[in-house]
Structures are given as structure tokens and as C-alpha cells.
TrEMBL record:
Lineage: Eukaryota, Amoebozoa, Evosea, Eumycetozoa, Dictyostelia
Protein name: MD-2-related lipid-recognition domain-containing protein
Cleaved signal peptide residues: 1-20
A GO BP entry: sterol transport
Pfam families reported in the protein's UniProt record: E1_DerP2_DerF2
GO MF annotation terms: sterol binding
Domain of life: Eukaryota
Length: 141
């Protein structure tokens, strides 16, 4: 399966019309506390880009940040990508502050209907896991 993966970071916490996951699990570290996770648009559709954004407080500066996105369906990994955030934002180290981490992805045309497990993560220069969040998204027939 082919998938597109883009990642970027903004420091401004903005509030577009997004769906907020009530149900997420925080598999990250003390260095980051999640305030919310949003999905835009509300409904994920095949071949259309969707964004998942993790909002929260970064409690210590982080350098050489690698962002990861893993999407699983029925225990099979469909997307597993890593991206060098510092090369993209060019403002590293990222200072301790409230940040949003938006990640875009696309599910291909032949994606089966059902529930997908999504893991968003970020590591620092010491390869320590800073951010990690697990959410589920549903894809209709
Ligand atoms: C996803 O994020 C990108 C980059 O900011 C933006 O251009 C696009 O409109 C967003 N899509 C949705 C559905 O929010
Ligand atoms: C999930 O995986 C199991 C074991 O590989 C397989 O038997 C089953 O058909 C799969 N279900 C779906 C919905 O793809
Ligand atoms: C981060 O957000 C929290 C809650 O919204 C707020 O209390 C805090 O002052 C913010 N911190 C910074 C550094 O902006």
C-alpha cells in the first residue's frame, strides 16, 4: 500500500473545526503532557488527506526531533514513517512551550473498512521517547 505522509509543527495553538478524540492513550513521557488530540476533517475518507494534531505542553527543550506515524489495521502495519522535524521547521531545538504537532496522512483507495490504530510519536536527540499517543480512527465501507 502506498501512503503519503507529511509532518510539520506550529507553535501557535489554533482551533479549526476539528473533532476531538475523547479516547486516546498517552504512551509518552513526563517531558510532554497531552492536552488534546484533534482530527480534521471529522470523518476519514479514502484518498483524502486527514490531519491528526496533538496539542500539549513540552516541558523540556527537544533537539533533533524525529516524528513517527504508524497506522495499523487488524495488527498489520500499513504505514510506518519517520520524519526529521528539525529539517522541516528549522527552529530546533524546540523550546519548552505549548506546541501542536500536526500530522497528515492519506489512506489509499483499497483500504478496508474498519478500525485503524494510529500511533504518533516523537523522540529527541538522545533517542528518548518524548511524545507518544494512540488513537483509533474508523473507516466506513
Ligand atoms: C491538513 O493540514 C494541511 C497543512 O496545514 C492543510 O493544508 C489542510 O487543509 C489540512 N486538512 C484538513 C482536512 O484539515
Ligand atoms: C484479521 O487478521 C486475521 C489473521 O491474519 C485474518 O484471519 C482476518 O481475516 C483479518 N480480518 C480482517 C477484517 O481483515
Ligand atoms: C500552556 O497552556 C496552559 C493551559 O492552557 C497554560 O496554563 C500555560 O500557561 C501555557 N504555557 C505556556 C508556556 O504558554
Amino acid at each position: 500500500m502506498k501512503a503519503i505522509f507529511v509532518v510539520f509543527l506550529c507553535f501557535a495553538v489554533f482551533a479549526p473545526a476539528v473533532f476531538s478524540f475523547n479516547d486516546y492513550s498517552d504512551c509518552g513521557s513526563q517531558a510532554f503532557s497531552i492536552s488534546s488530540i484533534g482530527l480534521s476533517p471529522e470523518k476519514v475518507v479514502r484518498e483524502k488527506q486527514f490531519n491528526i494534531t496533538v496539542f500539549g505542553a513540552l516541558k523540556k527543550d527537544a533537539d533533533k526531533v524525529q516524528v513517527g506515524l504508524e497506522i495499523k489495521f487488524n495488527d498489520t502495519v500499513l504505514i510506518d514513517k519517520k520524519s526529521d522535524l528539525c529539517k522541516l521547521v528549522k527552529t530546533c531545538p524546540i523550546k519548552a512551550s505549548n506546541i501542536s504537532l500536526p500530522i497528515s496522512a492519506v489512506l489509499p483507495k483499497n483500504s478496508p473498512a474498519g478500525q485503524y490504530q494510529v500511533r504518533i510519536s516523537a523522540t529527541n536527540d538522545k533517542n528518548e521517547k518524548i511524545i507518544c499517543a494512540l488513537v483509533k480512527i474508523n473507516l466506513d465501507k
